[in-house]
Design a protein that fits this description.
CATH architecture: Orthogonal Bundle
Distance between the termini: 51 Å
Radius of gyration: 20 Å
Order of helices and strands: HHHHHHHHHHH
InterPro entries: Homeodomain-like_sf (IPR009057), HTH-type_Tx_Regulator (IPR050624), HTH_TetR (IPR001647)
Protein name: TetR/AcrR family transcriptional regulator
Pfam family, one: TetR_N
GO molecular function, one term: DNA binding
Number of helices: 11
CATH superfamily: Tetracycline Repressor, domain 2
Keywords: DNA-binding
Strand content: under 5%
CATH class: Mainly Alpha
Largest sheet: none
Length: 204
Amino acid sequence: MKKGEKRKKELLKIAYDMFITQGYENTSVDEIIEKAQIAKGTYYYHFQSKEQMLEEVIDMMIASETEMAEQVIGMDIPVPQKIVMIITSVKPTEAEQPIKNALFQPDNVLMHHKVRKKLINVITPILSEVIKEGVNEGIFECDNIPERVKMLLILSDGTFNEGTFSEQDISVFIDMTEKLLGAEKGTMGFIYDLIDKSDMEAAE
């Protein structure tokens, strides 16, 4: 890795930590420069603005999730399971949970919105490819697939990203997913077996 690229990655990591801990809106370029111990000219050599830096921080955040989602496509597993694996690949792990919590704070509204929007835009073509596979296999019967995928991702985000969910929430999610994809009733029922039951009990 070239020296310039290494320095840029270091700056992105510093910005990422500061955006998460004190909020994007509450973090100034001068604070990032001071934390990184660099000249202002060095910062603006790599980034035209704080907004550009935010976009690149978000790209860094979702890169691993995108890679995991792409790997699912070639797996030798049923299409419905591929869909669930792709959706769960963009959910935070236990170690990443503090980051998710920080994104939901009022000071990070803009950052959270941009992360969600970019994730949907990146994952939609990947998930669309899997659903087309399901249509070809006769598992699903639907058109306008990219639009349906976006609706599915928004539905998933609303169901599982609010911290707690009930058994009824899961039931509604399964039912709406099957209707959205034109699948027979019960096709996505296996999702029940993947849910942490203690989370559901706590939510009820």
